Amino acid sequence: MHSGIPAPDRDDNPKWNVSDLLRGITPKSMLIEWSAVFRTPMSVAKTILHKFVGHLEMQASELIWKPRRSATIAWEQTQGISAKDKTSKYMGL
User: pLDDT tens, 2-22?
Assistant: First the structure.
């Protein structure tokens, strides 16, 4: 789950995307921008932003990753792939 601490931007022109947010990564530049746009103190912007990112992360897990995992497990079962098959060393054809 989200740690509540913004990730430091690594350069002067930070690049991040929605997948970062879905993983719970909050760029520091986004925090600064939210504070300016909503004209709130950094502490208020931080609280709101972290709740927003936490909600995105939860929705991604519930609506994307869990159904995808279930579909993958179902497919593996129809193919006869067991947990042991996935951990054994590949020996070639």
Answer: 555 555 555 555 677 888 888
In this prediction, residue 13 carries a pLDDT of 58
Give the type of residue at 6: P
E strands in the chain: none
Cβ atoms of 1 and 22 closer than 8 Å = no
The structural domain count of the chain equals 1
Under 8 Å between Cβ of 27 and 51: no
Angle at 89 between CA 85 and CA 93, to 5 degrees: 85
Query: Dihedrals φ, ψ of 63, to 5°?
Result: -95, -20
Return the pLDDT at 4.
56
Number of neighbours of residue 56 by Cβ within 10 angstroms: 17
Is 6 part of any domain? Answer: no
Q: Using one digit for the tens of pLDDT, what is the confidence trace for 41-64?
A: 999 999 999 899 899 899 999 999
**Is 8 within a domain?**
no
